[in-house]
Amino acid sequence: MGWTFQRNRQARRFCEKHGFVAVQETGGRRNGEKEPDVLYRWVKDRG
Asked: Which key words are in the record (predicted)?
């Protein structure tokens, strides 16, 4: 699992291309930058 900022389109494309699925989005209240973020989890077999 890993976090990235919602606005980081390049990181999000990379995650999704390599089988990661977004499982949670937040408004950024808990991270130091206070930026909305998204949590990705790798799914071995999406089929």
From this structure: Plasmid
What is the residue-wise DSSP string for 22-46?
EEEEE-STTSTT---EEEEEE-S--
The pTM score is 0.85
Nearest C-alpha neighbor of 33 from the set 7, 2, 1 = 7
Question: CA separation (Å) from 45 to 3, 16, 20, 29?
Answer: 21, 13, 10, 32
Specify the pLDDT at position 17.
95
Taking the CA atoms of 12, 17, 18 and 22 in sequence, report the sign of the dihedral they define: positive
